[in-house]
Amino acid sequence: MPDINLGLQIVPKSKTLDAYALVDKAIEVIASSGVKFTVTPFETVMEGPEDKLMSIAKRAQQAVLDAGAEEILVYYRLHIRNNRDVTMEEKTSKYR
Predict the structure, then answer these.
(1) pTM of the full predicted structure?
(2) Where are the extended beta strands (E) located within the chain?
(3) Taking all residues of the chain, what is their mean pLDDT, rounded to a whole number?
């Protein structure tokens, strides 16, 4: 199974908790997963097999809820190729 890119944005809603602290809980799950990832101001992008990334995304969502978010809005963006890897490097290396 080829690697894909999955962009994940979780927008937590809470009347009492800091939204950034809640988002940090999702990023902790992603960081501890071992997959390649990049945090941007609007989303976190991961690279790896689709099934693995979707599992990580679901755990990240649950971490935000478990941390006290009353609800979350979740936005996914996927870049998938037929029988070929998608890498973050190919998209951004020319900007470094």
Answers:
(1) 0.95
(2) 3-13, 36-39, 44-49, 71-79
(3) 97
The ranges assigned to domains in the chain are: 3-95
CA atoms within 13 A on the CB side of 77: 6
> For residue 48, which phi and psi values (nearest 5 degrees)?
160, -170
Tokens for 14? 């809470």
Q: In what order do the strands lie in the sheet with 36-39?
A: 36-39, 44-49, 3-13, 71-79
Mean pLDDT of 82-91: 96
Gyration radius from the chain CA atoms = 14
Q: What is the CATH number of domain 3-95?
A: 3.30.70.930
Residue 96: predicted pLDDT: 86
